[in-house]
Amino acid sequence: MIHKLQHATPCFHSELKSYVLQVLCVICFFFFNNKIHAQVDDESVISDNDFTSQLWFDLNPSWDVGSGQKINGEFGYRTIWPKSWQRFIVRGSFQSVLENPLLFKNTKHTETVVFGTGLFLLTSKTSHNSFEVRPFQGYKFAFNISPRFVLQQYFRAEQRFVFSGAEDNQIVGLRMRYQVKGIINLEGVFFEDDMGFYLPVSIEGFFNLIQASQFNDVIRVTPGLGYQFNSDFKLEGSLAYHYTRQDSEKLVRTNDIVFRFRIIKTFR
């Protein structure tokens, strides 16, 4: 019996991978179909306290350069229903795990410094197009609470430079971000080692010291589900709630429901 189970295991894993991919394809088709058939005027203007639906796609490659150092990339696309704007994102960063942590020296954890820059191109039907340059610096703490649960805290400072044709465009912005993220790892449960599902859940607050003209987030709550094919390749989906101030010229607050899909790949 054991011999038969050992031979059946690779087949089971192959079928499971195929099933996961099929489910992801069905989900993508469902949201695209809703987007295409939405019976809403594309020229609708977002009003104060509106609920919006957004779709985000991200490709997140990274390159492990050794000694706890990594180069991270991001290529993203974001849009809203009704389709009044779309956003294209390119972001790059460098991170390094500190060999000698500065804080919490008597606890088992890792500390990581991060810095990089993001480029954001916004095209809009209801307002001016814009281009944003966003340098950032961050500090992460990751605690291994148990073999299957990681708790991470991430502090980040962002300098925002927004260039737009609007007369009242606020070019310079500065904000702080604080994120708490928990990850439940299910790798190896009913799967081979380094394979399986994981559950990421995060809450992030935004604190504007100088408010820019667009997308001044207040809070994000993001539960998700990911599948790890191996230690270097993951697919992740999330359904998030964002509370956002859209403009600085007038108070336009929105409650955003964000469907996000990510492809995460590490090259060594």
UniProtKB/TrEMBL annotation:
Enumerate the Pfam families for this protein: DUF2490
Protein's name in the database = DUF2490 domain-containing protein
Species this protein is from: Formosa algae
